[in-house]
Amino acid sequence: MVSVLFVCLGNICRSPMAEAIMRHKVKEAGLERSIQVDSAGTGDWHIGHTPHQGTRDLLDQHQISYEGMIARQFASADFEQFDYIVCMDNSNWSNVKSLPGAKEESLIRFMDLLPGHELKEVPDPYYTGNFEQVYELMDAGCQMLLDKIKTEKL
Predict the structure, then answer these.
(1) Is residue 124 flagged as an active site residue?
(2) Known catalytic residue at 56
(3) Each residue of 39-54: pLDDT tens digit?
């Protein structure tokens, strides 16, 4: 089983959107028994909360399930459980990388999945309000990640 963890700040906007989109793509590819997907936040403000309303609205528009998704905080134990830890911005990357047990070889900056894109970090729609922009990035990047996993691990 290949495992993927998406990480953002509070685990209510970007990382749960990526988790839901990736789970959807994995299911469409018939790989549910081969790829596990989760998400977490580096902060603890939203532990136990469902995804942000803006995230839920966009996922609903695209008929992508977020059922059962609850915010949690990233833990050092995640380094042992996940093959790919995908961070949404440089702050998340630095926070995760500084934790005990960090395995830099498993860390990916999300925007590195979209080489040549003008953005180098995924904007946080909690602050920008632009959930559509983030959805477009997540959709394209998750497809690239799925292709990468198929090539590298399956």
Answers:
(1) yes
(2) no
(3) 999 999 999 999 999 9
